[in-house]
Amino acid sequence: MSTTTENKQSADDRKAPAGERVADWADGRLGIYSLAKANMRKIFPDHWSFMLGEICLYSFIIIILTGVYLTLFFNPSMNEIVYEGSYVPLQGVKVSEAFASTMDISFDVRGGLLIRQIHHWAALIFVAAMMVHMMRVFFTGAFRKPREVNWLFGFLLLVLGMFTGFTGYSLPDDLISGTGVRFMQGAILSVPIVGTYISMFLFGGEFPGHDFVPRFYSIHILLLPGIMMALLVGHLILVIYHKHTQYAGPGRTNKNVVGMPLLPVYMAKAGGFFFLVFGVIAVVAAIATLNPVWAVGPYRIDQVSTGAQPDWYMGFAEGLIRVMPGWEINAWGHTLALGVFIPLVIFPLVLGAIAVYPFIESWVTGDKREHHILDRPRNAPTRTAFGVAWLFAYFIMLIGGGNDLFATHFHLSINAITWFVRIFFFVGPVLAFIITKRICLGLQRRDRDKVLHGRESGIIKRLPHGEFIEVHEPLSQADLHTLTTHVQHQPLEIGPEVDENGVRRKVSPVQKFRAKLSKGFYGEGNQIPKATREEYEEIAAAHGHGHGHDEHEEVTSGKH
Protein backbone atom coordinates (compact mmCIF):
# COMPACT_ATOMS: atom_id res chain seq x y z
CA MET A 1 0.00 0.00 0.00
CA SER A 2 2.81 2.38 0.90
CA THR A 3 4.61 1.55 -2.32
CA THR A 4 1.51 2.44 -4.32
CA THR A 5 1.19 5.75 -2.47
CA GLU A 6 4.84 6.62 -3.06
CA ASN A 7 4.56 5.78 -6.77
CA LYS A 8 1.43 7.95 -7.05
CA GLN A 9 3.18 10.80 -5.24
CA SER A 10 6.25 10.59 -7.51
CA ALA A 11 3.97 10.56 -10.55
CA ASP A 12 2.23 13.71 -9.30
CA ASP A 13 5.63 15.32 -8.77
CA ARG A 14 6.59 14.56 -12.36
CA LYS A 15 3.38 16.22 -13.57
CA ALA A 16 4.00 19.40 -11.53
CA PRO A 17 5.57 22.39 -13.32
CA ALA A 18 9.36 22.73 -13.06
CA GLY A 19 9.13 25.90 -10.98
CA GLU A 20 6.84 24.24 -8.45
CA ARG A 21 9.17 21.23 -8.17
CA VAL A 22 12.13 23.56 -7.50
CA ALA A 23 10.10 25.44 -4.89
CA ASP A 24 9.08 22.17 -3.19
CA TRP A 25 12.70 20.99 -3.22
CA ALA A 26 13.94 24.23 -1.64
CA ASP A 27 11.10 24.30 0.91
CA GLY A 28 11.82 20.76 2.02
CA ARG A 29 15.40 21.69 2.85
CA LEU A 30 15.25 25.37 3.87
CA GLY A 31 11.69 25.86 5.14
CA ILE A 32 11.20 28.82 2.80
CA TYR A 33 7.43 28.44 2.50
CA SER A 34 6.69 28.57 6.21
CA LEU A 35 9.15 31.44 6.68
CA ALA A 36 7.63 33.44 3.83
CA LYS A 37 4.07 32.69 4.97
CA ALA A 38 4.86 34.10 8.41
CA ASN A 39 6.64 37.24 7.22
CA MET A 40 5.66 38.18 3.66
CA ARG A 41 2.21 39.36 4.78
CA LYS A 42 3.61 41.37 7.67
CA ILE A 43 1.89 44.76 7.99
CA PHE A 44 3.86 48.00 7.69
CA PRO A 45 2.33 51.43 8.39
CA ASP A 46 2.55 54.10 5.72
CA HIS A 47 4.10 57.49 6.54
CA TRP A 48 6.61 59.59 4.62
CA SER A 49 9.06 59.75 7.55
CA PHE A 50 9.52 55.96 7.46
CA MET A 51 11.20 56.37 4.05
CA LEU A 52 14.25 57.88 5.77
CA GLY A 53 15.32 54.44 6.98
CA GLU A 54 14.81 53.08 3.47
CA ILE A 55 17.11 55.76 2.05
CA CYS A 56 19.80 54.53 4.49
CA LEU A 57 19.37 50.94 3.32
CA TYR A 58 19.30 51.75 -0.39
CA SER A 59 22.30 54.09 -0.29
CA PHE A 60 24.23 51.36 1.59
CA ILE A 61 23.37 48.88 -1.17
CA ILE A 62 24.55 51.41 -3.78
CA ILE A 63 27.82 51.86 -1.85
CA ILE A 64 28.42 48.10 -1.87
CA LEU A 65 27.64 47.73 -5.60
CA THR A 66 29.83 50.62 -6.72
CA GLY A 67 32.55 49.67 -4.22
CA VAL A 68 32.83 46.20 -5.72
CA TYR A 69 33.35 47.76 -9.15
CA LEU A 70 36.02 50.15 -7.89
CA THR A 71 38.01 47.39 -6.15
CA LEU A 72 38.57 45.76 -9.56
CA PHE A 73 40.72 48.70 -10.67
CA PHE A 74 42.13 50.26 -7.49
CA ASN A 75 45.70 49.42 -6.45
CA PRO A 76 46.14 49.98 -2.68
CA SER A 77 49.89 50.52 -2.75
CA MET A 78 52.06 53.44 -1.63
CA ASN A 79 54.99 52.49 -3.88
CA GLU A 80 56.11 55.56 -5.84
CA ILE A 81 55.95 55.58 -9.62
CA VAL A 82 56.09 58.27 -12.31
CA TYR A 83 52.61 59.11 -13.58
CA GLU A 84 52.27 58.61 -17.34
CA GLY A 85 48.47 58.49 -17.63
CA SER A 86 45.95 60.46 -19.65
CA TYR A 87 45.94 63.59 -17.48
CA VAL A 88 48.65 65.69 -19.09
CA PRO A 89 49.30 68.27 -16.28
CA LEU A 90 50.49 65.51 -13.92
CA GLN A 91 52.55 63.52 -16.41
CA GLY A 92 56.10 62.99 -15.16
CA VAL A 93 55.14 63.66 -11.51
CA LYS A 94 56.03 61.10 -8.84
CA VAL A 95 52.85 59.65 -7.32
CA SER A 96 51.87 56.58 -5.36
CA GLU A 97 50.32 53.61 -7.14
CA ALA A 98 47.12 54.28 -5.19
CA PHE A 99 46.92 57.81 -6.60
CA ALA A 100 47.82 56.62 -10.11
CA SER A 101 45.11 53.94 -10.07
CA THR A 102 42.58 56.54 -8.86
CA MET A 103 43.57 58.73 -11.83
CA ASP A 104 43.20 55.75 -14.16
CA ILE A 105 39.73 55.00 -12.78
CA SER A 106 38.79 58.66 -13.31
CA PHE A 107 40.13 59.06 -16.87
CA ASP A 108 40.74 55.66 -18.47
CA VAL A 109 38.23 53.14 -17.04
CA ARG A 110 34.89 53.23 -18.84
CA GLY A 111 32.39 54.83 -16.48
CA GLY A 112 35.01 54.91 -13.74
CA LEU A 113 34.63 58.57 -12.79
CA LEU A 114 30.84 58.29 -12.62
CA ILE A 115 31.09 55.18 -10.42
CA ARG A 116 33.58 57.00 -8.15
CA GLN A 117 31.22 59.93 -7.86
CA ILE A 118 28.17 57.72 -7.19
CA HIS A 119 30.15 55.82 -4.53
CA HIS A 120 31.21 59.02 -2.77
CA TRP A 121 27.81 60.72 -3.00
CA ALA A 122 26.05 57.58 -1.78
CA ALA A 123 28.38 57.54 1.24
CA LEU A 124 27.56 61.16 2.06
CA ILE A 125 23.83 60.55 1.67
CA PHE A 126 24.07 57.33 3.69
CA VAL A 127 25.50 59.11 6.73
CA ALA A 128 23.13 62.08 6.32
CA ALA A 129 20.10 59.79 6.00
CA MET A 130 21.19 57.83 9.08
CA MET A 131 21.46 61.01 11.11
CA VAL A 132 18.05 62.29 9.97
CA HIS A 133 16.52 58.83 10.48
CA MET A 134 17.92 58.67 14.03
CA MET A 135 16.58 62.13 14.74
CA ARG A 136 13.13 61.02 13.55
CA VAL A 137 13.37 58.03 15.90
CA PHE A 138 14.60 60.29 18.71
CA PHE A 139 11.99 63.04 18.40
CA THR A 140 9.08 60.56 18.16
CA GLY A 141 10.27 58.35 21.04
CA ALA A 142 10.61 55.26 18.85
CA PHE A 143 13.69 54.24 20.88
CA ARG A 144 11.63 53.29 23.94
CA LYS A 145 11.09 49.73 25.14
CA PRO A 146 11.47 47.27 23.45
CA ARG A 147 13.68 49.06 20.89
CA GLU A 148 16.65 50.22 23.00
CA VAL A 149 18.96 47.57 21.49
CA ASN A 150 17.89 48.51 17.97
CA TRP A 151 18.67 52.15 18.81
CA LEU A 152 22.20 51.06 19.77
CA PHE A 153 22.49 49.15 16.48
CA GLY A 154 21.53 52.31 14.60
CA PHE A 155 23.97 54.40 16.62
CA LEU A 156 26.82 51.97 15.88
CA LEU A 157 25.91 52.03 12.19
CA LEU A 158 26.16 55.82 12.23
CA VAL A 159 29.56 55.85 13.95
CA LEU A 160 30.97 53.04 11.80
CA GLY A 161 29.61 54.78 8.69
CA MET A 162 31.54 57.91 9.64
CA PHE A 163 34.81 56.01 10.06
CA THR A 164 34.21 53.90 6.96
CA GLY A 165 33.78 57.13 5.02
CA PHE A 166 36.97 58.54 6.53
CA THR A 167 39.04 55.48 5.56
CA GLY A 168 37.43 55.57 2.10
CA TYR A 169 38.25 59.14 1.14
CA SER A 170 41.80 58.63 2.47
CA LEU A 171 42.55 55.88 -0.05
CA PRO A 172 43.32 57.99 -3.18
CA ASP A 173 46.40 59.42 -1.37
CA ASP A 174 45.73 62.90 -2.75
CA LEU A 175 46.71 66.14 -1.04
CA ILE A 176 43.31 66.78 0.61
CA SER A 177 42.85 63.27 1.98
CA GLY A 178 46.48 63.12 3.05
CA THR A 179 45.98 66.33 5.02
CA GLY A 180 43.01 64.67 6.74
CA VAL A 181 45.08 61.61 7.63
CA ARG A 182 47.80 63.87 9.02
CA PHE A 183 45.10 65.64 11.06
CA MET A 184 43.97 62.28 12.47
CA GLN A 185 47.53 61.24 13.26
CA GLY A 186 48.08 64.46 15.19
CA ALA A 187 44.94 63.77 17.23
CA ILE A 188 46.18 60.26 18.02
CA LEU A 189 49.57 61.60 19.11
CA SER A 190 47.86 63.87 21.65
CA VAL A 191 46.67 60.85 23.66
CA PRO A 192 48.94 60.57 26.72
CA ILE A 193 51.29 57.56 27.01
CA VAL A 194 49.73 55.34 24.32
CA GLY A 195 49.29 57.88 21.48
CA THR A 196 52.74 57.38 19.96
CA TYR A 197 52.38 53.59 20.09
CA ILE A 198 48.97 53.68 18.40
CA SER A 199 50.36 55.93 15.67
CA MET A 200 53.34 53.63 15.06
CA PHE A 201 51.13 50.54 14.90
CA LEU A 202 48.62 52.20 12.57
CA PHE A 203 51.13 53.67 10.11
CA GLY A 204 53.82 51.03 10.42
CA GLY A 205 56.45 53.53 11.57
CA GLU A 206 56.88 57.28 11.31
CA PHE A 207 54.12 59.09 9.45
CA PRO A 208 53.21 58.58 6.66
CA GLY A 209 55.04 55.26 6.38
CA HIS A 210 54.33 52.89 3.50
CA ASP A 211 51.42 50.92 4.89
CA PHE A 212 48.52 53.17 5.78
CA VAL A 213 46.79 52.98 2.36
CA PRO A 214 46.75 49.15 2.23
CA ARG A 215 45.75 49.02 5.91
CA PHE A 216 42.96 51.55 5.44
CA TYR A 217 41.92 49.62 2.32
CA SER A 218 41.48 46.37 4.29
CA ILE A 219 39.58 48.22 7.01
CA HIS A 220 37.44 50.03 4.42
CA ILE A 221 36.38 47.09 2.25
CA LEU A 222 36.41 44.21 4.75
CA LEU A 223 36.38 44.97 8.46
CA LEU A 224 33.99 47.91 8.80
CA PRO A 225 31.52 46.90 6.03
CA GLY A 226 31.38 43.38 7.46
CA ILE A 227 30.47 44.68 10.92
CA MET A 228 27.98 47.13 9.41
CA MET A 229 26.35 44.37 7.36
CA ALA A 230 25.88 42.27 10.49
CA LEU A 231 24.43 45.25 12.38
CA LEU A 232 22.13 46.08 9.48
CA VAL A 233 20.77 42.54 9.30
CA GLY A 234 20.24 42.54 13.08
CA HIS A 235 18.57 45.96 12.84
CA LEU A 236 16.09 44.77 10.20
CA ILE A 237 15.36 41.52 12.04
CA LEU A 238 14.49 43.49 15.19
CA VAL A 239 12.28 45.86 13.16
CA ILE A 240 10.29 42.84 11.94
CA TYR A 241 10.31 41.11 15.33
CA HIS A 242 9.15 44.14 17.34
CA LYS A 243 6.52 45.30 14.80
CA HIS A 244 6.84 48.68 13.16
CA THR A 245 6.02 51.79 15.16
CA GLN A 246 3.10 53.93 14.01
CA TYR A 247 1.69 57.37 14.64
CA ALA A 248 -1.35 57.79 16.86
CA GLY A 249 -4.71 57.59 15.13
CA PRO A 250 -8.10 55.87 15.21
CA GLY A 251 -7.82 52.10 15.53
CA ARG A 252 -4.09 52.20 16.27
CA THR A 253 -2.98 50.72 19.57
CA ASN A 254 0.13 49.22 21.13
CA LYS A 255 -1.23 45.79 20.19
CA ASN A 256 -1.81 46.20 16.46
CA VAL A 257 -0.32 47.73 13.30
CA VAL A 258 -2.49 49.52 10.74
CA GLY A 259 -0.98 49.55 7.27
CA MET A 260 -0.26 47.53 4.16
CA PRO A 261 1.22 44.02 3.81
CA LEU A 262 4.88 43.59 2.92
CA LEU A 263 3.99 41.52 -0.16
CA PRO A 264 2.95 42.67 -2.70
CA VAL A 265 2.13 46.29 -1.83
CA TYR A 266 5.07 47.37 0.29
CA MET A 267 7.65 45.41 -1.76
CA ALA A 268 6.46 47.07 -4.96
CA LYS A 269 6.69 50.53 -3.41
CA ALA A 270 10.08 49.76 -1.86
CA GLY A 271 11.46 48.46 -5.17
CA GLY A 272 10.36 51.59 -6.98
CA PHE A 273 11.77 53.80 -4.25
CA PHE A 274 15.16 52.02 -4.50
CA PHE A 275 15.49 52.92 -8.17
CA LEU A 276 14.32 56.45 -7.43
CA VAL A 277 17.08 56.85 -4.80
CA PHE A 278 19.63 55.29 -7.16
CA GLY A 279 18.55 57.63 -9.96
CA VAL A 280 18.74 60.76 -7.81
CA ILE A 281 22.22 59.83 -6.54
CA ALA A 282 23.37 59.08 -10.11
CA VAL A 283 22.08 62.45 -11.36
CA VAL A 284 23.73 64.34 -8.49
CA ALA A 285 26.98 62.43 -9.05
CA ALA A 286 26.91 63.26 -12.76
CA ILE A 287 26.52 67.03 -12.28
CA ALA A 288 28.35 67.76 -8.99
CA THR A 289 32.02 66.78 -8.76
CA LEU A 290 33.39 65.45 -5.49
CA ASN A 291 37.06 65.00 -4.61
CA PRO A 292 38.71 65.93 -7.95
CA VAL A 293 42.10 64.41 -7.09
CA TRP A 294 43.61 65.59 -10.37
CA ALA A 295 43.09 69.22 -9.32
CA VAL A 296 44.98 68.94 -6.02
CA GLY A 297 47.65 66.39 -6.90
CA PRO A 298 49.32 63.66 -4.85
CA TYR A 299 49.99 63.95 -1.13
CA ARG A 300 53.31 65.36 0.04
CA ILE A 301 54.07 65.63 3.74
CA ASP A 302 55.60 69.10 3.26
CA GLN A 303 52.46 70.51 1.58
CA VAL A 304 48.98 71.42 2.83
CA SER A 305 46.07 72.13 0.52
CA THR A 306 44.21 75.42 1.08
CA GLY A 307 40.52 75.02 1.79
CA ALA A 308 41.08 71.40 2.81
CA GLN A 309 37.81 70.17 4.31
CA PRO A 310 36.74 66.71 5.44
CA ASP A 311 33.40 65.24 4.46
CA TRP A 312 30.62 67.00 6.35
CA TYR A 313 30.15 64.33 9.03
CA MET A 314 33.74 64.82 10.22
CA GLY A 315 33.35 68.60 10.27
CA PHE A 316 32.28 68.46 13.92
CA ALA A 317 35.56 66.88 15.03
CA GLU A 318 37.53 69.24 12.81
CA GLY A 319 35.67 72.25 14.22
CA LEU A 320 36.40 71.22 17.81
CA ILE A 321 40.13 71.15 17.15
CA ARG A 322 40.18 74.32 15.03
CA VAL A 323 38.48 76.50 17.63
CA MET A 324 40.09 74.96 20.70
CA PRO A 325 42.79 77.21 22.22
CA GLY A 326 46.31 75.82 21.85
CA TRP A 327 46.70 74.91 25.51
CA GLU A 328 49.65 72.76 26.55
CA ILE A 329 50.92 71.30 29.82
CA ASN A 330 54.64 70.60 30.20
CA ALA A 331 55.52 68.25 33.04
CA TRP A 332 58.30 65.72 33.70
CA GLY A 333 59.79 66.28 30.28
CA HIS A 334 56.52 65.56 28.44
CA THR A 335 54.05 67.83 26.69
CA LEU A 336 50.30 67.23 26.91
CA ALA A 337 48.59 68.98 23.97
CA LEU A 338 45.23 69.86 25.53
CA GLY A 339 44.29 71.84 22.43
CA VAL A 340 43.95 68.54 20.59
CA PHE A 341 43.34 66.03 23.39
CA ILE A 342 40.28 67.79 24.89
CA PRO A 343 38.39 67.84 21.54
CA LEU A 344 39.38 64.20 21.08
CA VAL A 345 37.60 63.42 24.37
CA ILE A 346 34.58 65.70 23.74
CA PHE A 347 33.78 64.17 20.33
CA PRO A 348 32.98 60.63 21.57
CA LEU A 349 31.21 62.06 24.64
CA VAL A 350 28.84 64.08 22.46
CA LEU A 351 28.17 61.02 20.30
CA GLY A 352 27.84 58.78 23.35
CA ALA A 353 25.14 61.05 24.78
CA ILE A 354 22.95 59.95 21.86
CA ALA A 355 23.60 56.27 22.52
CA VAL A 356 22.65 56.28 26.22
CA TYR A 357 19.69 58.68 26.08
CA PRO A 358 16.99 55.94 25.83
CA PHE A 359 18.25 54.37 29.04
CA ILE A 360 18.41 57.75 30.81
CA GLU A 361 14.83 58.62 29.86
CA SER A 362 13.56 55.18 30.89
CA TRP A 363 15.32 55.55 34.24
CA VAL A 364 13.97 59.06 34.82
CA THR A 365 10.36 58.18 33.96
CA GLY A 366 10.35 54.72 35.53
CA ASP A 367 8.35 53.66 32.47
CA LYS A 368 8.80 49.93 31.78
CA ARG A 369 5.89 49.47 29.37
CA GLU A 370 6.23 48.62 25.69
CA HIS A 371 5.64 51.51 23.30
CA HIS A 372 4.56 51.03 19.69
CA ILE A 373 2.70 54.34 19.27
CA LEU A 374 4.95 57.28 18.45
CA ASP A 375 4.97 60.59 20.29
CA ARG A 376 4.40 63.91 18.60
CA PRO A 377 7.59 65.91 19.33
CA ARG A 378 5.56 68.74 20.90
CA ASN A 379 4.20 66.35 23.52
CA ALA A 380 7.71 65.56 24.80
CA PRO A 381 9.10 69.11 25.02
CA THR A 382 12.16 68.32 27.15
CA ARG A 383 13.27 65.48 24.87
CA THR A 384 12.66 67.57 21.76
CA ALA A 385 14.59 70.49 23.25
CA PHE A 386 17.54 68.22 24.05
CA GLY A 387 17.58 66.94 20.45
CA VAL A 388 17.48 70.43 18.95
CA ALA A 389 20.22 71.61 21.35
CA TRP A 390 22.42 68.69 20.27
CA LEU A 391 21.86 69.47 16.59
CA PHE A 392 22.61 73.14 17.20
CA ALA A 393 25.94 72.27 18.84
CA TYR A 394 26.74 69.98 15.93
CA PHE A 395 26.06 72.61 13.26
CA ILE A 396 27.93 75.30 15.17
CA MET A 397 30.98 73.05 15.08
CA LEU A 398 30.47 72.50 11.36
CA ILE A 399 30.95 76.26 11.00
CA GLY A 400 34.14 75.93 13.05
CA GLY A 401 35.35 73.11 10.82
CA GLY A 402 35.00 75.36 7.77
CA ASN A 403 36.04 78.65 9.36
CA ASP A 404 38.53 79.40 6.57
CA LEU A 405 35.89 78.96 3.85
CA PHE A 406 33.35 81.07 5.73
CA ALA A 407 36.02 83.75 6.13
CA THR A 408 36.98 83.83 2.44
CA HIS A 409 33.48 83.47 0.98
CA PHE A 410 31.75 85.99 3.26
CA HIS A 411 34.75 88.33 3.73
CA LEU A 412 34.79 87.84 7.50
CA SER A 413 37.60 87.74 10.03
CA ILE A 414 38.63 84.16 10.76
CA ASN A 415 39.31 85.20 14.36
CA ALA A 416 35.78 86.58 14.67
CA ILE A 417 34.34 83.31 13.32
CA THR A 418 36.49 81.29 15.74
CA TRP A 419 35.33 83.33 18.74
CA PHE A 420 31.72 83.14 17.56
CA VAL A 421 31.96 79.33 17.47
CA ARG A 422 33.72 79.17 20.84
CA ILE A 423 30.99 81.21 22.53
CA PHE A 424 27.97 79.72 20.77
CA PHE A 425 29.11 76.15 21.35
CA PHE A 426 28.17 76.75 24.99
CA VAL A 427 25.51 79.48 24.70
CA GLY A 428 23.75 78.30 21.53
CA PRO A 429 22.50 74.89 22.76
CA VAL A 430 21.10 76.51 25.92
CA LEU A 431 19.19 79.09 23.86
CA ALA A 432 18.05 76.40 21.42
CA PHE A 433 16.81 74.27 24.36
CA ILE A 434 14.82 77.14 25.91
CA ILE A 435 13.31 78.34 22.61
CA THR A 436 12.39 74.82 21.44
CA LYS A 437 10.75 74.01 24.75
CA ARG A 438 8.68 77.21 24.64
CA ILE A 439 7.59 76.42 21.07
CA CYS A 440 6.53 72.89 22.09
CA LEU A 441 4.52 74.23 25.04
CA GLY A 442 2.90 76.81 22.76
CA LEU A 443 1.90 74.06 20.32
CA GLN A 444 0.49 72.02 23.22
CA ARG A 445 -1.63 75.01 24.24
CA ARG A 446 -2.88 75.35 20.69
CA ASP A 447 -3.80 71.65 20.58
CA ARG A 448 -5.69 72.01 23.87
CA ASP A 449 -7.52 75.03 22.53
CA LYS A 450 -8.44 73.19 19.32
CA VAL A 451 -9.84 70.24 21.29
CA LEU A 452 -11.97 72.48 23.54
CA HIS A 453 -13.05 75.15 21.06
CA GLY A 454 -12.63 73.58 17.63
CA ARG A 455 -10.76 74.74 14.55
CA GLU A 456 -10.85 78.35 13.36
CA SER A 457 -12.93 78.38 10.20
CA GLY A 458 -12.19 81.93 9.00
CA ILE A 459 -15.96 82.62 8.86
CA ILE A 460 -16.96 85.82 10.65
CA LYS A 461 -20.49 85.97 12.05
CA ARG A 462 -22.36 88.96 13.45
CA LEU A 463 -24.55 88.30 16.47
CA PRO A 464 -27.97 90.00 16.96
CA HIS A 465 -26.54 92.48 19.46
CA GLY A 466 -23.83 93.54 17.00
CA GLU A 467 -20.83 91.54 18.23
CA PHE A 468 -18.62 89.91 15.59
CA ILE A 469 -17.28 86.40 16.30
CA GLU A 470 -15.37 83.80 14.33
CA VAL A 471 -17.16 80.50 13.88
CA HIS A 472 -15.18 77.51 15.16
CA GLU A 473 -15.68 74.11 13.57
CA PRO A 474 -15.68 71.18 16.02
CA LEU A 475 -12.91 68.65 15.39
CA SER A 476 -13.67 65.26 13.93
CA GLN A 477 -13.61 62.18 16.10
CA ALA A 478 -10.30 61.11 14.55
CA ASP A 479 -8.65 64.47 15.23
CA LEU A 480 -9.88 64.49 18.83
CA HIS A 481 -8.38 61.05 19.37
CA THR A 482 -5.03 62.03 17.82
CA LEU A 483 -4.72 65.18 19.94
CA THR A 484 -5.61 63.55 23.26
CA THR A 485 -4.25 60.00 23.09
CA HIS A 486 -0.72 60.75 24.35
CA VAL A 487 0.43 59.85 27.85
CA GLN A 488 1.44 62.67 30.19
CA HIS A 489 3.91 61.34 32.76
CA GLN A 490 3.85 62.62 36.30
CA PRO A 491 7.18 63.42 38.00
CA LEU A 492 8.48 60.86 40.46
CA GLU A 493 8.01 61.77 44.10
CA ILE A 494 10.43 60.86 46.89
CA GLY A 495 7.63 61.04 49.45
CA PRO A 496 7.75 62.34 53.04
CA GLU A 497 11.15 62.39 54.71
CA VAL A 498 9.72 60.74 57.86
CA ASP A 499 7.36 57.74 58.02
CA GLU A 500 4.16 57.44 60.07
CA ASN A 501 6.24 56.51 63.14
CA GLY A 502 8.34 59.65 62.95
CA VAL A 503 11.43 57.75 61.78
CA ARG A 504 13.48 59.53 59.14
CA ARG A 505 13.55 57.59 55.88
CA LYS A 506 16.85 56.91 54.16
CA VAL A 507 16.81 58.47 50.71
CA SER A 508 19.94 57.90 48.65
CA PRO A 509 21.53 60.73 46.65
CA VAL A 510 20.75 58.75 43.49
CA GLN A 511 17.03 58.74 44.32
CA LYS A 512 17.09 62.47 45.00
CA PHE A 513 18.90 63.11 41.72
CA ARG A 514 16.42 60.94 39.83
CA ALA A 515 13.48 62.81 41.37
CA LYS A 516 15.02 66.16 40.37
CA LEU A 517 15.56 64.97 36.80
CA SER A 518 12.00 63.66 36.67
CA LYS A 519 10.69 67.01 37.87
CA GLY A 520 12.79 68.73 35.23
CA PHE A 521 11.29 66.47 32.57
CA TYR A 522 7.66 66.38 33.64
CA GLY A 523 7.16 68.86 36.50
CA GLU A 524 5.09 72.01 36.50
CA GLY A 525 5.81 74.20 33.50
CA ASN A 526 7.16 71.30 31.42
CA GLN A 527 3.86 70.14 29.93
CA ILE A 528 0.42 71.64 29.37
CA PRO A 529 -2.40 69.50 30.83
CA LYS A 530 -4.42 68.10 27.96
CA ALA A 531 -8.17 68.59 27.72
CA THR A 532 -10.41 66.35 29.82
CA ARG A 533 -13.87 65.05 29.07
CA GLU A 534 -15.41 67.27 31.74
CA GLU A 535 -13.85 70.45 30.26
CA TYR A 536 -14.94 69.47 26.76
CA GLU A 537 -18.55 68.77 27.81
CA GLU A 538 -18.76 71.98 29.83
CA ILE A 539 -17.66 74.15 26.90
CA ALA A 540 -19.79 72.19 24.42
CA ALA A 541 -22.83 72.71 26.63
CA ALA A 542 -22.08 76.42 27.05
CA HIS A 543 -21.93 76.90 23.29
CA GLY A 544 -24.85 74.57 22.66
CA HIS A 545 -22.87 72.53 20.14
CA GLY A 546 -24.17 69.10 21.02
CA HIS A 547 -21.23 67.42 19.30
CA GLY A 548 -22.48 64.04 20.27
CA HIS A 549 -21.42 61.30 22.61
CA ASP A 550 -18.72 59.81 20.35
CA GLU A 551 -16.49 62.87 20.44
CA HIS A 552 -16.73 63.00 24.23
CA GLU A 553 -15.61 59.41 24.40
CA GLU A 554 -12.59 60.18 22.22
CA VAL A 555 -11.44 62.86 24.64
CA THR A 556 -11.92 60.41 27.49
CA SER A 557 -9.92 57.70 25.72
CA GLY A 558 -6.84 59.92 25.68
CA LYS A 559 -6.93 60.60 29.42
CA HIS A 560 -4.26 58.80 31.49
UniProtKB/TrEMBL annotation:
> One biological process GO term for this chain?
respiratory electron transport chain
* Keyword Electron transport applies: yes
Q: Tell me where it mainly resides.
A: membrane
**Pfam families recorded for this chain?**
Cytochrom_B_N_2
Where does the protein end up? Cell membrane
Looking at the record, the residues that make up the Cytochrome b/b6 N-terminal region profile domain are: 22-248
Q: Which cofactor does it need?
A: heme
Q: What is its EC number?
A: 7.1.1.8
Q: How does it sit in the membrane?
A: Multi-pass membrane protein
- Decide whether keyword DNA-binding is in the record: no
InterPro entries referenced in this protein's UniProt entry, alphabetically:
Cyt_b/b6_N, Cytb/b6-like_sf, Di-haem_cyt_TM
A GO cellular-component term linked to this record: plasma membrane
Q: Where are the transmembrane segments?
A: 50-74, 120-139, 151-171, 183-204, 216-241, 262-288, 336-360, 380-399, 419-440
What this protein catalyses is: a quinol + 2 Fe(III)-[cytochrome c](out) = a quinone + 2 Fe(II)-[cytochrome c](out) + 2 H(+)(out)
GO function term, MF aspect, one: oxidoreductase activity
Report which superkingdom the organism of origin falls in. Bacteria
Q: What is this protein called?
A: Cytochrome bc1 complex cytochrome b subunit
Q: Which organism is it from?
A: Streptomyces qinzhouensis
